Amino acid sequence: MDELSQIQRMLRILQILSSGRKVTTKELRHRFDGAVTLRTLQRDLLALSESGIPLISEKTMANENAWTLMSRFRSFIPLPLETNEYLAAHILKANLKIFQKTPFEKEIQSLIDKIDQIVPEEVFLETESGKAQDLFENYSTGSFDYSPHGETINSLISAILHRNNCKVTYHNPYSGIEKSYPIEPEKLVYYNGGLYLIAYLRKYEKFRLLAIQRIKKLDLKEERFPKDHHFDPNLFWKNKFGLFSADPVDVKLQFSKEIRHHIEGRSWHHSQEIEIDKDGDIILSMKVGLSPELISWIMGWSNHIHVLSPVELIDIIKSSHREALKKYK
After folding, report:
1. Considering only the top CATH level, what class is 6-76?
2. In terms of Cα–Cα distance, which of 80, 96, 106 is closest to 136?
3. CB atoms within 10 A of CB 170
4. Global pTM?
5. Where does 147-231 sit in CATH, by number?
6. For 78-87, how does the pLDDT look when each residue is reduced to its tens digit (9 = 90+)?
7. Where in the chain is the domain with CATH 1.10.10.10?
8. Mapping DSSP to helix (H, G, I), strand (E, B) and coil, where does residue 278 land?
């Protein structure tokens, strides 16, 4: 723990005492990770008492001073965190691994450090042995390393908050061409190990998804864009199975009962309907576009899936299997 000023220590002591329980100077020293001496903490407690803070000191069986804060004064101290609220902060941190090695990672850690400073004594004692930071792990493969894009991410966050116009130079991986054009950043999206930006293109009057790692240059402008367009997330994601758009069609898929436990209980698409046939197989119906992501997802289920409709999708899957088979001849 970094060295704290007296005012920082005193505020921290008040937050600890706001739990209502009696705390000795030894317990306080433990809460400060042993970085503050018992003598210093004793002086801080006396200084609080002399300044008019209603502290009560009592001798324990071990002849130590145990300090409490009068109940009528606790309402002036910020509301303490509950155990689950504290744990939720660490779960949130685990889910933000996408920002590792970027400047924003420091901001996340700073937030957790500040939360640690206002955790009530009983929550601290309850979670200390179990290590709250080890409660939850977000395990995923194929995540991008965004450390080279930290400045871009920070600029986009600022642009979203303050509605700054931007000029982006973007690389198209299919054409291999880089193009520059104005954008109005709307929000960041995390999907399947990647970070994306939803931006409004005023020239075309539509929203577009941009992969952060393909942004080669970002110029943050001083002028702000007018909020004269509404982003409807339900409409934006309506026909997507993943990130790509396509004209929606009625899709019906049959999954073998051997993998039923992998399909049931999950939300695959907002339009999904699931039923069980007489053989125990699952029938999944959705109204989605025939995007590359849908094709890839279907192919990933191997021989455990059977496309029932539409015919166009059946033909695509047959062709994909034939092309894959050629690679093994």
Report:
1. mainly alpha
2. 96
3. 20
4. 0.70
5. 2.30.30
6. 555 667 777 7
7. 6-76
8. coil
